[in-house]
Amino acid sequence: MKRMLAVVVLAALAFVTSGTERALAQDNEKSAVEATVRDLEQAAQDYNHAKVISLLTPDARWIERSLPTKADDLEWPQFEKAKAAGVRITNRPHDFETHVQGDVAWVTLTLDSTFSADSAEGQKWLQGLKEYCLSQATSVSCEATFVESEVLVKTPNGWKIALGHTSLLPKAQK
């Protein structure tokens, strides 16, 4: 009887432990996925094109006011113009909803962005962002909120973004 009780207790402990280990592994994967997305937002903020590309699959696509576009081409000329004009970007990603299923993950998040500039050229560039601004764009700053969804795949080099979609959050929903 004692032996049977010991076997039952050990089996129960093994079951609980394996469930806990799976949950921890799932949490670790979610953290790794979210870190990749945060790295992408930081690289965009820093105008680091090489880092952005390193976080994408070679065939990654992005949807932003268009049909899917090759992600490494998306808007980068505009980023270069903004950088040359001295525009600063501050990205604040939050409200992550992350799901991992094997080697595929999908994430939705909210991205609050502030664009600001001190130079006349940068301030002129900011005036072109009026459609994005949640409040009246000033000559020195613009606030915008985007909702993003991304599909990531796990590669030997970590999680990479294969598909992204960005939508401007309407002012009334802020």
Characterise the protein shown here.
- This protein is α+β, with helices and mostly antiparallel strands and 174 residues long.
- Helices cover 39% and strands 36% of the residues.
- The chain contains four helices and six strands; from the N terminus they run H-H-E-E-H-E-E-H-E-E.
- A six-stranded mixed β-sheet has the order 2-1-6-5-4-3.
Topology summary:
Layout: H1 2-45, H2 49-54, E1 56-63, E2 69-70, H3 76-84, E3 88-101, E4 104-116, H4 120-127, E5 141-155, E6 158-168
Parallel strand pairs: 1-6
Antiparallel strand pairs: 1-2, 3-4, 4-5, 5-6
Task: Give structural attributes.
single chain; 174 residues; alpha+beta; six-stranded mixed β-sheet; 4 helices; 39% helix; elongated
SSE order, one letter for each helix or strand: HHEEHEEHEE
Residues in β-strands, percent:
35-45%
> Ranges with pLDDT <50 over ≥5 residues?
none
Helix content: 25-40%
The major β-sheet equals: 6 strands, mixed
Lateral arrangement of strands in the main beta sheet = 2-1-6-5-4-3
Q: How many β strands by DSSP?
A: 6
